[in-house]
Design goal:
Length: 59
């Protein structure tokens, strides 16, 4: 297989995210206690945000 064919099969590169953007995103995360209850709360929060986003996109 030629180099050109191999390059065509590679997965696209993920966009680089600035460390400051990552830290800012972490600041937005509510403090949740570790453990099963904290994990369940985090999943509920993520699902709620996802549903809100889907509702906005549907408009």
């Amino acid at each position: 297989m030629s180099d050109e064919q191999l390059r065509g099969r590679q997965a696209p590169a993920t966009p680089a995210i600035d460390d400051e953007e990552r830290l800012a995103a972490l600041d937005d995360v509510d403090e949740i206690e570790p453990g099963p209850d904290g994990f369940a709360a985090a999943v509920d929060e993520i699902m709620g945000a996802h549903q809100d986003l889907l509702a906005r996109l549907a408009q």
